[in-house]
Amino acid sequence: MKGLTFYFILFYSFCFSQETINLTEVSYTFDVNLSNYTEGIPYKSRLYYNDSTSLFIYNRINFEGTDKFFKKVGDRKGRVNGIHLLRNYDEEGYKFHLNFNTKELTSREVLMEKYEVTVKEKNIEFNWVITEESKKIGEYVCYKATTQNFRGRNYEVWFTYDIPVPTGPWKFHGLPGLILEVHDDKNIINITFNNIKQNNKTKAYYAIPTSKEVYNLKEYLKERFRLYLAYVNNKKAMTATGQMRNSDPIAYVNIEYNEEQIKLLDKYQQIEYHIYEESLKKD
After folding, report:
1. Kind of pairing between the strands at 214-216 and 115-122
2. Structurally, how many domains does the chain consist of?
3. Which of 45, 138, 166, 281 could form a disulfide with 30 if both were Cys (CB 3.0 to 4.6 A apart)?
4. Which residues constitute the domain of residue 160?
């Protein structure tokens, strides 16, 4: 009898874990060019939503159908050709889960492509300005909205009243309709709409991201930059000991910045490690 009870519990648990929910799936291309090359990395991304939550995912192996992106590209200013642009895709992907009612955003991020962390944010302020400018994206009439200096970048987005859900790709949300397109004014972040359809996903697939390490946004951006500085200092040490040829430091270019880094962006297009170190000496 105990054995029968065990197998019943096991069967029940399996069935519950496979329980599906009805979602709308939106396919986007999330093109990110953080290295200022002639091309960025065109991630295949998905947004899933229902009437109260949404989940955006990109940098996922099964979306891409391969485990890496590799291509030779050039420098935007034409100084260098044949740069090897490589990106290893992640098994699970970067995830952004939004609760429409509580305004809580819970993200799965990966630091230095080595370990995952959970980042929690609430009541993100975009300060949207909705304009009367419109255009059609697919079959949808969309209107332009803008936000200035959202964590170091200016964005324009296109949303549609035809789909009245307050969400969109990546962290973008808070408009009276689904966001179908996003561009920043430096041509670094470009998100474009592909298609929309109904889909079923398991509750486990759609669950809020969790990991052992949990950060708020300020802590996460600080740790991300700390790891970058550690990488640069290690590169300097290897150059000094002859283990690496001398080269210019790689600029720190991120999708979003903290307040201290934004102050540096007012003076410099990109944040380089020596600029940051000099600013600390003056404080």
Report:
1. parallel
2. 2
3. 45
4. 21-202
